[in-house]
Design goal:
It is built from eight helices and 19 strands. By secondary structure, it is of the alpha/beta class. Strands 16-15-14-17-18-19 form a six-stranded mixed sheet, sandwiched between helices. Strands 5-4-8-9 form a four-stranded antiparallel sheet, with helices on one face. A three-stranded antiparallel sheet has the order 1-3-6. About 30% of the residues are buried.
């Protein structure tokens, strides 16, 4: 456009020279002045353009995130017209995108409010905000400006579980257990009469003095649960036609189980072979077992970002984690299939003193054979076909 405009002024200038008409010279000078001033004006005002996005940068799937976008002109020159376009991914964009044309006076600002729709878990870029302006007559080409990008993390859905029975070999913890071998001497829940063979360490001498008969303490059984979740997101290890739904279900299962462990004040860790855009793409993502809400947030952020892809085999992740975890750790393997190689690695985990649990998600071939094999070798096994199957752990 600017080139055509210059050609037009050059033609007018030649005509003015040929006919020696002062009026045409005046038009040429006026157009040249408007062009120069307009270009300088628009470039100057964009230098003084500033913006601010105010919103919560973390949300759960299904939530709406209010965003307030403030655009401010901090210069002395007014913005005669300004076009604003907010760029957003379709997974979180509102039904009506933000596209505005407005004018801004010196040291003035304008605010826009819209809602981000967290339709799907993920790690999203919010922005950039594109701005463009020019002269009033449109004689010069538009000057464009682009903002930086912000981010939004959408956590996966969490189904609140209440009856998740995970096995552990580490005694003396905070969870009740049914095996008397795991009685916790710090958790006294009653007394009874002394029976021959009871240890004198269990005698309650105050109760004995009060009743005149030997009384022994009854201890509440408990376990200390350290759980490592290994999440398989290699799409080649899922069915060809349903890997997308199955991997998303696997992430929901992992998030829900981790939530149960953390709520019960136990240690939880996570390792996955999914691709994380914020980490080294050649290595799998891992969060060492810890307890507390801060650990829950760390694991949720990994689960929000990771994507299923053609990655390293799950057994390599299991093999690496097996060598890092302490004795007695419960190892929950969440994946889409269980072949001979995986079973061999599960047996090695057991020999290392770990407690492996196998959780298969989605449509599984040869399910009966896998169940029989797990029962034969006493490997806890669960099959989650859809989210409704998780409701059995909510009883």
């Amino acid at each position: 456009m600017l080139f055509n405009h210059l050609i037009f002024m050059l033609v007018l200038f030649i005509i003015a020279l040929l006919v020696r008409d002062d009026f045409i010279f005046t038009i040429v000078y006026l157009l040249a002045g408007v062009t120069i001033v307009g270009r300088i004006w628009s470039s100057r005002v964009l230098r003084n353009l500033e913006y601010e996005r105010s919103y919560t940068k973390k949300a759960f799937c299904g939530e709406e995130v209010p965003v307030q976008l403030t655009v401010e002109n901090r210069g002395w020159l007014p913005m005669i017209w300004l076009r604003l376009i907010e760029s957003l991914p379709t997974e979180i964009a509102p039904p009506v995108p933000l596209r505005q044309v407005l004018s801004l006076g010196p040291h003035s600002q304008v605010k826009f409010d819209y809602l981000l729709k967290a339709r799907k878990r993920g790690y999203y870029k919010v922005g950039p905000l594109f701005a463009s302006t020019g002269d009033l007559l449109g004689l010069t080409s538009e000057q464009r400006w682009e903002s930086d990008q912000d981010t939004l993390i959408v956590y996966p859905r969490i189904i609140r579980l209440s009856n998740l029975n995970l096995r552990s070999s580490a005694p003396l913890g905070a969870l009740r257990h049914t095996e008397p071998i795991y009685e916790d001497p710090c958790r006294v829940y009653g007394k009874r009469e002394y029976v021959a063979g009871d240890s004198l360490r269990r005698v309650d001498w105050k109760a004995t003095a009060a009743t005149g008969h030997l009384q022994v303490k009854l201890f509440d059984p408990s376990i200390s649960l350290t759980t490592e979740f290994i999440l398989g997101l290699n799409i080649s290890e899922y069915g060809v036609h349903h890997w997308a739904d199955a991997t998303e279900l696997a992430i929901v299962v992992a998030a829900s189980m981790v939530d149960w462990v953390i709520r019960n004040k136990q240690n939880a860790g996570m390792a996955t072979n999914g691709l994380d855009p914020m980490s080294d793409q050649t290595a799998y993502s891992a969060v060492m077992p810890r307890k507390g809400q801060a650990q829950m947030v760390r694991i949720l952020e990994v689960l929000a970002r990771v994507q299923a892809a053609e990655t390293q085999p799950l057994i390599e992740v299991v093999r690496h984690e097996r060598q890092q975890l302490p004795w007695g750790t419960t190892l929950v393997i969440i994946c889409g299939q269980a072949d001979d190689q995986l079973f061999e690695e599960v047996f090695r985990c057991r020999r290392y003193g770990l407690n492996p649990i196998l959780v298969l998600v989605g449509q599984i071939g040869a399910l009966r054979a896998i169940k029989e094999r797990c029962e034969h070798f006493s490997i806890p096994f669960h099959h989650i076909r859809n989210e409704f199957d998780l409701h059995s752990w909510r009883q």
